[in-house]
Design goal:
alpha+beta, Ribosomal Protein S4 Delta 41, Chain A, domain 1, Structural Genomics Hypothetical 15.5 Kd Protein In mrcA-pckA Intergenic Region, Chain A, 2 domains, 5 strands, globular
């Protein structure tokens, strides 16, 4: 399945944010990559600002262009504020829910756990990272995979109370999606209205 496999620090420097987590390179070189990156940042046009916000959302959630465009079309067809619905749909992706549950330290690691058949939804193994989890469904670690070191390390000390839309159950090493999160509950620094404006042109 296609995904971005290029240098993550370069993307973080380009966007000016540590979207993949703590980044030593970004701390040392807090300017865009390339020959002229250290020069003063050029002021972005309105289109450039909107495009950057879309790129930030894509890279944050690990979604490629066509997938993202299709998600936006589905979000636009639903009731509610399109930008907020879009973020809710991104949050409902199985790899993201696994990440939010603390089962994996990053979304990329969560995606790998899903693809390698370590994750179940309502007791059935699901190996599709883009699978959309709906409220009421239970996402958990497969019984045979509970002893994996990467999962145990990730869960160690993880604060499950920070995402109120997910209910954690230690006995099954998993949790139930209670509801779709409200915009103020989603911690990502994404200005979704700019994405809506970009696609509305």
């Amino acid at each position: 399945m296609a995904r971005y496999t290029g240098p993550k620090s370069k993307i973080a420097r380009k966007l000016g944010e540590a979207i993949y987590g703590e980044d030593k390179v970004l701390t040392k070189k807090n300017y865009p990559p390339g020959q002229h990156g250290a020069n003063k940042r050029r002021k972005l046009s309105e289109y450039g600002t909107q495009l950057r916000e879309k790129q930030k959302a894509k890279y944050t959630y690990g979604v490629l262009e066509r997938q993202f465009r299709n998600l936006f079309k589905k979000a636009a067809a639903k009731k509610g504020v399109t930008g907020e619905v879009l973020l809710q749909m991104l949050e409902a992706r199985l790899d993201n829910v696994v990440y939010r549950l603390g089962i994996a330290p990053t979304r990329a690691a969560a995606r790998q756990l899903v693809l390698h058949r370590h994750i179940t939804v309502d007791g059935q193994v699901v190996n599709i990272a883009s699978y959309s989890v709906v409220p009421g469904q239970i996402v958990a670690v497969r019984e045979k995979s509970k002893s994996l070191e990467v999962i145990q390390d990730s869960l160690s000390g993880f604060n499950h109370a920070k995402y109120p839309w997910i209910e954690w159950d230690e006995s099954i090493k998993g949790g139930k999606l209670l509801n779709n999160p409200q915009r103020d509950e989603i911690p990502e620094n994404i200005k979704e209205q700019l994405i809506v404006e970009l696609y509305s042109k």
